[in-house]
Please model this.
Amino acid sequence: MKKNRYDVIIIGCGTAGIFAGYELERLCPGMDILMLEQGKDIHHRSCPIVRKKTETCINCPSCAIMSGFGGAGAFSDGKYNFTTLFGGWLSDYMDSDAIMELIEYVDSINVKFGATLKRYSTDSAEAREIARKALSHDLHLLDAAVKHLGTENNLVILTRLYDHLNQRLELVCNAPVKDIDAVNDGYRVTLEDGRSAECRFLIAAPGRTGAEWFANQCRKLGLQLINNQVDIGVRVELPAKIFEGITDIVYEAKFLYRTKQYGDLVRTFCMNPYGHVVTENVDGIITVNGHSYTDPALRSENTNFALLVSNRFTEPFNEPYQYGKRIASLSNMLGGGVIVQRFGDLIRGKRTNEHRLSQSFTRPTLKATPGDLSLVLTKRHLDNIIEMIMALDKIAPGTANYDTLLYGVEVKFYSARLQLSNELETRLPNFFAVGDGAGITRGLSQAAASGVSVARTISRRLGKL
Model:
């Protein structure tokens, strides 16, 4: 850090932090802005699995998949959704038209830095027929438009954004924050190496990897937290042909289903046509995810997507984040990482082993440990997932094939949410919280929108808007 005092300090350089910094610099050129990121800069983020140097996670000290400039979305396949129906809870703070204006504005910036113009949408005759057929089986297709930026193009866009910001404000990576303290005229941010700086305005964009740390800082500052949910499930992998009739039209289908046995909500998430199943490291816990490329040469013959069961807890339990980590740790304990099981083996109560997996017509894109997911997930989770797969099989025949692969576990952690104003300000003046780490978003578009919104609020307070 070059100074002891800044106008604005932004903690976290994921999507929310990036677009907060971008908009502040655009609206207030010359302002002293400091952006802090615990991980590496985009030029030095490098995952051995992505580079094909290893097939399994080797527990790097700082996971390049989860932390660094670009946040947890840097190595994702870059789905950018145009909707307020999912991707976060910004509609709790502002009206839908304002959110959509922000989402469209962020998209224009992405296009400026290299994003595609092509959109997929549920607003077509073909998509409406898919929705109609799904509804006849009590599956609800959410309306949305989406852009697929692609894993490789997403990195290009982020690299250009990094270079743009690095020339216009102070951006410090490999700088994990230890403490946030309120001082008389603002806030003091102290790094783990002992360096500190103060600011008038503070934007916390800690991302998913900083969720627990940020919750602890909020408690220390006397800020009340609202218990949020955790989504637990599996990643499904099957031949791309099974879902082609859906993914070729809408690309990512968001289906919601309420199970008949328990009345629980199950949803499809992060659908990756012709994609690859990958791992990610959350505080030393290995979980599963997926991505896909726009380059046809890099595509697989499979499609993968998550099936997630939403868990929202009531008092006295208030640690859904820890609950998700404990379940994921069981998979790590039994399989040394991610476990894979054929759907047919799960139904028959058999453990998938190397021999059975080798007989599968669906070839896995991730090297995972064959095993038994019934030893990891609760009966309620598995019953919900099985019922959802059977429902999906009615609109995409083949989903419930014996050789459909299930990888476990996939966990989506949502931070405990702060009580915020409509301007995303905490009860401490000029202290704002944005993005996934603040528990108010869960995707690229709304995270970016939250960052832009706060930047505009600060600019108004400074008389720049």
